[in-house]
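Before relying on records like the one below, remember that each one covers exactly one chain. Contacts with other chains, cofactors or solvent are not represented anywhere in the record.
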Amino acid sequence: MSVQSTLSSVIGPADTADGGGEYLSRNPANLDDVVARVRLGGPGALPAAAERAQRAQREWAQVPAPVRGRVIAGMGRLVEANKESLARLVTREIGKPYTEALGEVQEIIDTCDFFLGEGRRLYGQTVPSEMPDKQLFTFRVPVGVAAVITAGNFPVAVPSWYMVPALLCGNAVVWKPAEYAAATARALSELAWRAGVPRGVLNLVYADGEDTFAGLDAALSAGTVHKVGFTGSSAVGARVGELCGRHLQSPCLELGGKNPMVVAPDADLDLAVEGALFSGWGTAGQRCTSLGNLIVHRDVHGEFVRRLDDALRSAAIGDPTGDVLYGPLLDQKFADNFESILDTVAAHHTALGSDGVGRIGDSAPRKGFQGDPSTGLYYHPVLLDGVRPDDHVFRQETFGPIVGVTTYETLDEAIELGNAPGYGLSAAIYTTDPATAFRFRQGIGAGMVSVNNSTSGAEAHLPFGGNGRSGNGSRQSGIWVLDQFTRWQSLNWDFSGKLQKAQMDVATVEPELDYRLPAELGGDR
């Protein structure tokens, strides 16, 4: 076993370890390949980083916003110059196919390009006063220190959604990435620091989940964290939200999904199959926006399932450095979770899409597999027909290469099925009828809706986020995320030379409310 590097938390200018143990970040496509030995911090790591960040933030906030925008621009250019290297590291550390990893890195570049301009558009307003010789203003001001806790399925793109606007707005950041994506986190941080972000303004903390939670509790109690951004499971997000609520904070929560795709009777079935294949099994179904439930009209159910089964059986799966639909699961804990999901497959289900179910290997081979399945965490794709609304696989996020199929007869029934699990992140419908598309959008509870496109895929200038079990209504990306990392401050400036009291010293003009038009003007006879 060879170890590529040893990594520690970076708090301020120094690498720091705080007795939290050690984690080996392994290549899930080749478990003998240890990408990094990660020295974890204990429960004191995050509070220490937040305290350091609070001191650094005051100076960073004084840097003019357009200059901060130039730093973000520099970060984008550095990421672009290192695009292939960073994408290869993403592929190696989490097993994401290289073509998808390139797209993920491009999303950082797009985000930086967008927020470069926002450095010159952190607009406030001038507001007319109800009294003379008085002027009113509004300003966006930074929140302070943002603690950002991210999952590893998008190890660089999603963190950039938090980090870039937070830094642009004048905040400092304490970033706690997933341990199994530690090397990619360090690589992205290095690019940010070399773009001109001071190390104390961006701090990197490695810690396990419980030590992170304890550290966040301590930092919130100390008043050194003023905003929390969390991407992860709905269960953990609920704990984070509860903790923030005790400190009168509203976190930015981007959580799981059970994203429906409705296939209408007039849908282009080949296009729907293509969309389902990518959004259901791309990244091995390990996206928050992955397709969860296929809701197919009874009239086209049989033909659609047949076509999708054929497409899934012929899809390339295996070595993520090649041209494959998906590679391994991210980490052993996700493989264990997927095994438990497979245990819920029942007698009334029909498993399609591959020659077996479970881990791919000599005892359960996958036809056309690319590479050696014995080296990594590779699993068969599952298309599960006959799913019922009370099934576990219908109600819960599965986070793996499995998609369930159920049927419907009316659009109202399809919408009800789409909303039933209680998530609300992403949804899609395939139809050629505009009325069907708009009625679906009106009824579905998802924060993001696609028509004739997949449930996955976000552009850097649109709001990203969900409702219900998928989040608390906060949004990332585009101008909407600015409300997460700034607070509105109002200023009233009275130059009248006297005290003018609102709602009291206000001139009034009284209308003659008892006036009526003369009858002859109204044409009365």
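The first strand starts at residue 6 and ends at 7.
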